[in-house]
């Protein structure tokens, strides 16, 4: 048997690194005058002795150790999560095997090489292929495991719900203090935090002391794009995600599963919970912040006197349109709770004299007399049949003189809805779907509308202007001759 001796200036640090970064198993430790100067661990079957550099036998320069393992990728992820200093990232080495190297606090380099060649011609028979490695060092069974793992998504959400990232950022880094601060069971919290260190959300540089990785920092309250709020298990975002257990129902029936899982439809949920409604409106507003100014600028609002924003939600778009075009008047139509909240926001913007709100249902008759009926990002919430009905109601209200303006942020071209989970999310939460331009043109056609023009903004923003397909040429001339306007 060979035993390798490692000499460290700081044995506890070396021990912590080996156990937490590489998963070495501690066998024994000894202290001299209260200071740990000796420890034994086992790593991949090899016994290692860590001892103080003052040992006369030390005298060594830093050395490199190379281990051959069955699957190096999990170890690489673990080392990354623990914040290891990476000397060589995981890549295929000249022998065709995945390998990486990390350095420890003593300056030793640790290289781990996968035992299987990635492009071995004599690759195993199909039955064995689940264990074979690809260039990134993973096997199909590893990848299936990652695709189906539920521990990680829930562990991250629990971390966010308990606000552990915020606590760590405020300097509460010790497990005992963290457990007290978030009223959690210390043992269970420790298991959660260590698992998330393994998954790269946290690091555990010293035993039971945690820090945030770049990923973990995103889970702080002030993290970019509000992920903490979305992942909070008490919030609306998590409720939307938790509709996924109903995906089987959606796939069998083509219907949303939100009510199946949560007991009422998504829209009824917003009606029943003003807090959820507010969160949803804020989410929409954060997107309108990017798109509404473009809508105000791209479309020619000069000959429009009165705009209806159908399913107008937060009122952010209508507010922008009225602020940019002082000649415009506007009406927002939405469910009662939404219309009420939008009315308050519009009033707070000082635009109440030119805007009003109507509690209404876009599947029923809409108020007539508008020049433009905007439907912004509302059709994606519905299947083709319902989206067609909404457009038909707008067409009926617009009459011969009015126009219908579909505003959507379209996915990238070529249109491939399967490239993001959004299409499935729409299905399972509200029964909606992602659509490309031709899909919108097609439902507009079924609603009796003809596409007059398509305007494109930044980041997929698309405006599809429609008029009634059966409108008379006289009405077209009259609409074009409307008054000129001033924009700000
Ligand atoms: C995805 S949001 C879009 C909101 C807004 N147009 C925007 O672009 O930010 C869809 C809106 O449709 C509204 N909505 C849902 N069902 C409705 C109905 N039956 N009648 C009117 N509005 C409805 C929702 O309340 C919500 O405000």
UniProtKB/TrEMBL annotation:
GO BP terms: methylation
Keywords associated with the record: Methyltransferase, S-adenosyl-L-methionine, Transferase
Gene Ontology MF terms in the entry: O-methyltransferase activity; protein dimerization activity
One Pfam match: Methyltransf_2
Every VOC domain range: 1-115
Keyword Methyltransferase assigned: yes
InterPro entries: COMT-like, COMT_C, COMT_dimerisation, Glyas_Bleomycin-R_OHBP_Dase, Glyas_Fos-R_dOase_dom, SAM-dependent_MTases_sf, VOC_core, WH-like_DNA-bd_sf
Highest taxon in the source lineage: Bacteria
Protein name: Putative glyoxalase superfamily protein PhnB/precorrin-6B methylase 2
Species this protein is from: Micromonospora polyrhachis
Lineage: Bacteria, Bacillati, Actinomycetota, Actinomycetes, Micromonosporales
């Amino acid at each position: 048997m060979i035993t390798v001796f490692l000499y460290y200036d700081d044995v506890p640090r070396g021990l912590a690194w080996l156990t937490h970064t590489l998963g070495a198993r501690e066998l024994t430790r000894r202290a001299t005058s209260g200071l740990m100067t000796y420890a034994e661990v086992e790593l991949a079957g090899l016994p290692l002795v860590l001892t103080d550099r003052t040992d006369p036998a030390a005298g060594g320069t830093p050395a490199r150790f190379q281990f051959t393992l069955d699957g190096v990728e999990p170890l690489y992820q673990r080392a990354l999560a623990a914040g290891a200093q990476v000397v060589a990232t995981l890549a295929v080495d000249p022998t065709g095997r995945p390998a990486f190297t990390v350095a420890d606090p003593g300056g030793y380099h640790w290289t781990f090489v996968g035992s299987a060649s990635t492009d071995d011609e004599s690759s195993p028979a199909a039955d064995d292929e689940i264990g074979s490695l690809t260039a990134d060092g993973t096997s199909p069974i590893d990848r299936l495991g990652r695709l189906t793992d539920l521990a990680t998504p829930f562990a991250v959400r629990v971390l966010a719900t308990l606000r552990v990232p915020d606590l760590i950022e405020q300097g509460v880094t010790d497990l005992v203090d963290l457990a007290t601060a978030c009223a959690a069971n210390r043992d269970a919290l420790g298991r959660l935090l260590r698992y998330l260190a393994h998954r790269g959300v946290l690091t555990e540089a010293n035993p039971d002391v945690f820090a945030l990785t770049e990923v973990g920092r995103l889970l702080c309250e002030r993290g970019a794009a509000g992920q903490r709020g979305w992942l909070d298990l008490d919030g609306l975002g998590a409720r939307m995600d938790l509709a996924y257990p109903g995906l089987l129902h959606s796939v069998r029936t083509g219907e949303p599963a939100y009510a199946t899982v949560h007991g009422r439809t998504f829209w009824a949920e917003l009606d029943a919970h003003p807090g959820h409604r507010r969160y949803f409106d804020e989410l929409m507003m954060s997107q309108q912040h990017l798109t509404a100014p473009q809508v105000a600028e791209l479309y020619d609002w000069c000959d429009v006197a009165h705009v209806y924003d159908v399913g107008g939600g937060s009122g952010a778009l209508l507010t922008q349109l009225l602020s940019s075009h002082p000649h415009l008047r506007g009406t927002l139509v939405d469910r009662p709770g939404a219309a009420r909240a939008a009315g308050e926001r519009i009033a707070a913007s000082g635009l109440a004299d030119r805007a009003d709100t109507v509690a209404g249902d876009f599947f029923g008759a809409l108020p007539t007399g508008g020049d433009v009926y905007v439907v912004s990002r509302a059709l994606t919430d519905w299947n083709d049949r319902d989206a067609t009905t909404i457009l038909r109601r707008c067409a009926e209200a617009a009459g011969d003189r009015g126009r219908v303006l579909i505003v959507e942020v379209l996915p990238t071209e070529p249109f491939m809805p399967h490239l993001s989970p959004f299409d499935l999310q729409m299905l399972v939460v509200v029964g909606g779907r992602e659509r490309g331009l031709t899909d919108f043109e097609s439902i507009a056609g079924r609603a009796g509308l003809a596409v007059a023009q398509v305007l494109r903004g930044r980041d997929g923003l698309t405006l599809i202007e429609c008029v009634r397909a059966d409108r008379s040429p006289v009405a077209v001339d009259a609409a074009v001759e409307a008054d000129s306007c001033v924009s700000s």
